[in-house]
Specification:
By secondary structure, the protein is mainly α. The chain has one domain. 95% of the residues lie in helices and 0% in strands. It is built from two helices and no strands. The protein is elongated.
């Protein structure tokens, strides 16, 4: 049983070496397909990431300004009078 387990571990290491060889063969075939797919993916990613970054930056700036105003002395007095 112990020998079988040890051999399985060695086989996993050997598979990693074989996978590298298989990847090289597959890369040659996939390179042509991937180039077409990458162009489509890049356009989608730019639209999603660009829109998400702009929205997040605007929200963060508004929150920071509110926090700075909230820490002022004038608004603290208004809160005390309101309560």
């Amino acid at each position: 049983m112990k020998e079988g387990r040890g051999r399985r571990k060695i086989r996993r290491d050997a598979r990693g070496g074989r996978r590298r060889r298989r990847r090289r063969r597959r890369r040659r075939r996939r390179r042509r397909r991937r180039r077409r797919r990458r162009r489509r993916r890049r356009r989608r990613r730019r639209r999603r990431k660009g829109g998400g970054r702009r929205r997040r930056r605007r929200r963060r700036r508004r929150r920071r300004r509110r926090r700075r105003r909230g820490g002022g002395e004038e608004e603290d007095e208004w809160r005390r009078r309101g309560t």
